[in-house]
Amino acid sequence: MSVRLLAAATAEQGMLVDTTVRFIEDTLPLTGVRALAESTEPVGAAYIADAASLGWFGMLVDERHGGGSASGIGLVDAAAVAAERGATLQPGPFVGTNVVAHALSVAASPTGDLVSAGQMSAGPVSADTVSGEAGPHTDLLARLVAGQAVATWVAGAVGGLTPGAGEVTIRSATDAPGGGSALDGYVLDGEVRHVPDALGCDVLLVTGNGTDGLTQVIVDTTAPGVEIRALSGLDITRRTCSVRLSGVHVPAGALVGTPGTATEDLFARQTQVAAVLAAAESVGAMHRDFELAVEYARARIAFGRPIGSFQAIKHLLADTSLSLEMAKGLVTAAAEALGGGAPDGAELAHAAKAFVAEHGITLTHACFQVFGGIGYTWEHDHHLFMRRLAADAVTYGCAQWHRARLAERIGGVG
Amino acid sequence: MSVRLLAAATAEQGMLVDTTVRFIEDTLPLTGVRALAESTEPVGAAYIADAASLGWFGMLVDERHGGGSASGIGLVDAAAVAAERGATLQPGPFVGTNVVAHALSVAASPTGDLVSAGQMSAGPVSADTVSGEAGPHTDLLARLVAGQAVATWVAGAVGGLTPGAGEVTIRSATDAPGGGSALDGYVLDGEVRHVPDALGCDVLLVTGNGTDGLTQVIVDTTAPGVEIRALSGLDITRRTCSVRLSGVHVPAGALVGTPGTATEDLFARQTQVAAVLAAAESVGAMHRDFELAVEYARARIAFGRPIGSFQAIKHLLADTSLSLEMAKGLVTAAAEALGGGAPDGAELAHAAKAFVAEHGITLTHACFQVFGGIGYTWEHDHHLFMRRLAADAVTYGCAQWHRARLAERIGGVG
Amino acid sequence: MGDTAVKGTGQTEVPAEASTETLETSETLTLDEYRARARVWIRENLRPVPAAGPAPVGMRTTETPPEVIAAGRALQRKLFDAGYAGITWPREYGGQGLGGEYERAFLEEARGYQMPNLGIAGGTTFGVCAMTMLAHASPDFLRRHIPRILTAEELFVQFFSEPEAGSDLAGVRSRAVREGGRWILNGAKIWSSGAYYADWGMCLARTDWDVPKHRGLTWFAVPIGAKGVTVRRIRQITGDAEFCEEFFDNVELTDDDVIGDVNDGWTVAQTMLMFERGGGLSHGGPVRKVPQGIAPDLVELARSVGRIDDPQARDLIVRAHVDDVARRALMARLGGLMRAEPGRAAHLASYAKLASGVHDPVRANLAMAIGGPDAVAWEENDEAAGRTAIGFLNSRFMSIAGGTNEVQRNGIGERVLGLPREPSFDSGKPFREVLRDARNWSGRAG
Amino acid sequence: MGDTAVKGTGQTEVPAEASTETLETSETLTLDEYRARARVWIRENLRPVPAAGPAPVGMRTTETPPEVIAAGRALQRKLFDAGYAGITWPREYGGQGLGGEYERAFLEEARGYQMPNLGIAGGTTFGVCAMTMLAHASPDFLRRHIPRILTAEELFVQFFSEPEAGSDLAGVRSRAVREGGRWILNGAKIWSSGAYYADWGMCLARTDWDVPKHRGLTWFAVPIGAKGVTVRRIRQITGDAEFCEEFFDNVELTDDDVIGDVNDGWTVAQTMLMFERGGGLSHGGPVRKVPQGIAPDLVELARSVGRIDDPQARDLIVRAHVDDVARRALMARLGGLMRAEPGRAAHLASYAKLASGVHDPVRANLAMAIGGPDAVAWEENDEAAGRTAIGFLNSRFMSIAGGTNEVQRNGIGERVLGLPREPSFDSGKPFREVLRDARNWSGRAG
């Protein structure tokens, strides 16, 4: 039942995937996801804590910040977990929490430029080398890794990532009405829609426009002025939210990294990491929807034959299988390259998301055609995958956005 | 063997198509086209004259200018002829001559605005109502209609129609080096590539940039400074040429219509008429390539069955047939609307060319797949159609250009 | 899914009828007189259609509320009483027996007025079931049922598809066994649109298992309220529940309930499929071609998500538009071809069906791409914003319901293009052997 | 087309060999010593590869001029004499009998140096025919032919496909009849790449018509210069004529010419197909992943037609690039899966083939769209400008040659996904009945 995203998993990666599959089967299989979807509850704290104990939230975090991964490249492991999650349509901000934790870990390193440097979980802790003190978000990072806190990323329309979603303004508190000293930190205003799974999160990483350029801060969801509202959505297994920030004050220590160019670089890396993980979740959903269609084609009889013996069905599934294998290969390659610091990491990450966004839609249509009428029923699981894949296609950047990032790189290398 | 572009042809239209089919079979069937392609000869004068006697070159010309058509709407008849030509890959500037003749006929009408007005072959002659004299191009028009002269349109990159093709500058002879009076007419300079079938033409309709805006003039191919060179091309059944105009003098009477806005409107109409006729020729080529593939699928045996009994082949051909029927319907609808002065004529013309350009390529690929290895042989006719369809796809505006024209109309009507 | 097919809401196809009282009068009226009279009656008795919002992207099978159906039944009765029900239907069964030109005249006058809304079952009753009955049922049957159909006392749905017989419509396994002068029906049906509020089901059952599958089938009229009939509404992926599933547990029927000849059900089914797939197309005039501008629904969508000036969104809109006009042009072309060769009409109709089956999903995907994040999540209760997503979920309706794309492609390939036949594994042997052999499929043949 | 397939020019796959003279020496050398010695020899005897221009869009089967082939034969002889031919091949047939690591060492050292160019037939000889012979031919046969192959005195091509047997490779109709101790061959073959300059054809013929089609086949070595053999070059749509067609008119062969067992030709064919389809993939290490930037050939094309700044052209380039990296990633994934499960390698290889068959045409169409008018017509003799068009004409090569897309899809469907089999109409009866029944196809089956 595993997606088997990695063609050549190490023994450690195999174990990570096995425990992940078993954990999901035991705690939140698809029947449970369905029940959760029809209720209004977010996923429980116990689920998060147990998942954290499997290592779900520390794979993109430096070891000195409490992170660690099964193989040398945390992003590959995280992608493998994401794929299994996608196959069972797991809810909750797995991508969000990992992106936030990764951003905090990178920003806490002295150079902050792991973006172009090397391995995803390498690099010294800022506490040791910069000031001798613990970094500003050390405690939060530890809580995220341990599953004691969940986070999501409020990016909105920054850089066109989520068109029409709105953006946040981050002013220095001194400039805000009422004034104050620089120590007072920042004031945030704005409404951003299409934030994945914000409901139930403890903290938000908010990207916004500040006086010194692009700025990122950590916001506690319990802070006054934070209002989170669930939207209606096509994907009923995951809650997209609207986040309104009305004069939200955060302390100076809430800042993540240095505003301006450095944050732009970090922002770019966040989009790439999110792209790989979101694509991996999609590939998992593609895998399972496809698997169900193949099973159906084997069993369903029409015109005196199993329908899978008809070339119309057989060839449709073969073509779909090809694009699924390509998607798996590309997501793996992107995770390896981006996570391993290869020069083409960013390029592959954008390509992976662009490929998966489009082929996920094509795949779910193909599966629907194989299911025929039964696919129209609420009881059949197909529509849950169809909904998820369509929603995934625009989350963390649609195909067009990621292709535009690649177009910017034409003529360069990597 | 007829393409049968028109689903509901009148008796007159049926006769026009029948005589056209018979004429082609008798004078220049595909074997002859092949022979011509391997030689360097243009199509003979006798062919042109005989074709003219069938009415090929007068259908878009007002009756008072010697034109006339089988039905009320000349463009529909011309499209039906074009489709039969395309099916047999007839060479020669049929589209060019008709567009030039049409432009001359429209420009010679007093208002010159048949563009938005009505039936394609209606409208009074300028000679009668404007000055009492014969229009400037009355004689040329008569020769074109009679097949005593052949013409093509040198549009180049004007309006982006043929990207990279170059443009022509048309200056008043008074401004030209050496000066002269206004009666001296115009001087043309520039090189334009991708002119269909210019070799063998008697006159060119040249669109270029003049002092008063977009300007069109008639240029004799024997005039000093005109140099026409055949290019190498994918489509070996038709010669694309480069036309170099080096200080070519034309008299004032060479002007077609009024420079500026009126010529822009006429230019737009020319692109639309060319789009419909070129699309009709393509549809003919699509029809025949497809017909050959269906015949092959019926006859070819593999794995103990005719290959057409396999769903893989059968369904490919069914889908291809659907797009072919849509293409035929759309070209007919465009010819009816544009030729009949309907408000959506321009819109349908652009849509028809965009649709046919893309589906022509898809169709020829599908046919190739049915033919398999035999399609790779020079002796088989398939590649001639493949070459033609790929070349047609960019002649008189590629799909993207025509879609861009439609995009400009978003929000409007028709 | 086979049972609702190409009919849309069915609404516009409900033929308006004239009742017996006015029969004599109508017959003596010229067309112009009839039209004038109808106009007066319509203005006095019907209400104008309320202005509609923009059509949703894609097809939505919305449920019709019970009170709307009740009002629809009453209004249909009113039409019947006034002599405007069954205008072209035989007089002996309650119709008016007039020519098609009278019906067209009435419909033209009624344009813009609200006609009876009997929901999706109304379309099935008038456009498919009654038409099929008129062609095949006995005079006794017709005398019993057609007048009650014309007064909307009896709404019929199709009991045709089965859980194990979808595309393979002739593969039905519901069985009717003759016992002591009665028929005992057992089995299950599915995709019967609107059965939950209809009165009768027109049901195909196997009555002989020892002949090839297309033989041994018989149609029955089954009262939905009969003992042993259970109707379950199917919740669809859109959340609607327009379709139903029925279970038959020893339902007792009589010979009076048989439609057409016993064991000749497939002949009847062919007629039904023709009506269901819009075989009427060939009888109409040329399809009216109304320039609609460029994909108005997608332009509206692009405006609502703030992308109307985005060149890529505009290109997507244009792509949809090009296909839209090509599909409209295809319909016009098919109309011409069908009029020229009526014998090929049924085969050519596959093009229309396949065009929808192929292009509806493409268009829905384009709409999703234009809509972007706003098409995927929206403010609670903002129904308009959710339309693109609903259209996406519904977009394969035409590629599956009423004959899948694959079935249409086979039809076009074999019956239009003349390609060699698909090998058949179910037409030459008793149906019970077909089922056994399919279960033991090995791929071995000739 | 089946006969050249996935091999490209075959060039890089020509195993370099070591001759008998140096055998003893080589065997006693360590790998490092062998490498050092090879390096010296290579620098002294081979010429560096001239700098190449950008690769053309799509695959082109260019003809190799006769003088190049002649030089290639001479150079191959030189390698043989120096002991660098057949490095891994058995010593008894003229090879060096060394391990693969020696061959890799030699090839690594030879990188950047010009190896023998024997044209497309060279690839077939060394990569396909000889490998198949080594697996199936008799020792006598091997002793006669392999040494002469290693010296390039005998170039072999495949005589496999026939005009009436393309995708259906086992459907060959060429016949060899045993008469008075000889075999008499009649029939025709097609798509034999480079046969016009090769010396021998490895030919599949039917030797028994009364058994099912996969039995009753036998392979023969046919001297191309033999009496009764006619070779005709096939002019391709690109204008090239690399492929040939052969006609056999009572060609006399002997038992010595038989390769493998009589009537067991299909077993031999399976081995051949494995080599032809790149079955070696599973033995190699991970596919080397070299970041190449974004579709350099298309970027170059867009520059040359002045569209490098056109957003729509750039989007087309990116679309091609996304598929490019997905295909590269697929190859890496397949490599991993094959190493994990070597038993599935042959089936998984279908993905690689299908990926090319599906995406090559897409990419060629993108190139044409980027190139626009300049890709369709160009200045006489400007060969670079014509490359896009040639790529377009050639773009279906992989979708047809060496097993069509349809054949690959069947393979993936049945052997990877486990879908039920295609019904078979040619595997259970004598081949002569298959042909008769196919001609009388009615679609009737079980």
From TrEMBL, chains A, B:
Residues 10-107 form the Acyl-CoA dehydrogenase/oxidase N-terminal domain. InterPro entries: Acyl-CoA_Oxase/DH_mid-dom_sf (IPR046373), AcylCo_DH-like_C (IPR036250), AcylCo_DH/oxidase_C (IPR009075), AcylCoA_DH/ox_N (IPR013786), AcylCoA_DH/ox_N_sf (IPR037069), AcylCoA_DH/oxidase_NM_dom_sf (IPR009100). Its cofactor is FAD. Residues 272-410 form the Acyl-CoA dehydrogenase/oxidase C-terminal domain. SUPFAM superfamilies: Acyl-CoA dehydrogenase C-terminal domain-like, Acyl-CoA dehydrogenase NM domain-like. The keyword Flavoprotein applies. One of its GO terms (molecular function) is flavin adenine dinucleotide binding. It comes from the Bacteria. This is Acyl-CoA dehydrogenase. Transmembrane segments: none annotated. Keywords: FAD, Flavoprotein, Oxidoreductase. PANTHER family: ACYL-COA DEHYDROGENASE, ACYL-COA DEHYDROGENASE FADE28. It holds the Pfam family Acyl-CoA_dh_N. The lineage of its organism: Bacteria, Bacillati, Actinomycetota, Actinomycetes, Frankiales. Belongs to the acyl-CoA dehydrogenase family.
Automatic annotation (TrEMBL), chains C, D:
InterPro entries: Acyl-CoA_Oxase/DH_mid-dom, Acyl-CoA_Oxase/DH_mid-dom_sf, AcylCo_DH-like_C, AcylCo_DH/oxidase_C, AcylCoA_DH/ox_N, AcylCoA_DH/ox_N_sf, AcylCoA_DH/oxidase_NM_dom_sf, Mycobact_Acyl-CoA_DH. Residues 263-417 form the Acyl-CoA dehydrogenase/oxidase C-terminal domain. The keyword Flavoprotein applies. Residues 1-27 are annotated as: Disordered. Pfam families: Acyl-CoA_dh_1 (PF00441), Acyl-CoA_dh_M (PF02770), Acyl-CoA_dh_N (PF02771). Its cofactor is FAD. Keywords: FAD, Flavoprotein, Oxidoreductase. Residues 73-153 form the Acyl-CoA dehydrogenase/oxidase N-terminal domain. SUPFAM superfamilies: Acyl-CoA dehydrogenase C-terminal domain-like, Acyl-CoA dehydrogenase NM domain-like. GO terms for molecular function: flavin adenine dinucleotide binding; oxidoreductase activity, acting on the CH-CH group of donors. GO terms for cellular component: plasma membrane. Residues 160-251 form the Acyl-CoA oxidase/dehydrogenase middle domain. The keyword Oxidoreductase applies. It comes from the Bacteria. Signal peptide: none annotated. Residues 16-27 have a biased composition (Low complexity). Belongs to the acyl-CoA dehydrogenase family. This is Acyl-CoA dehydrogenase. It comes from Parafrankia irregularis. The lineage of its organism: Bacteria, Bacillati, Actinomycetota, Actinomycetes, Frankiales.
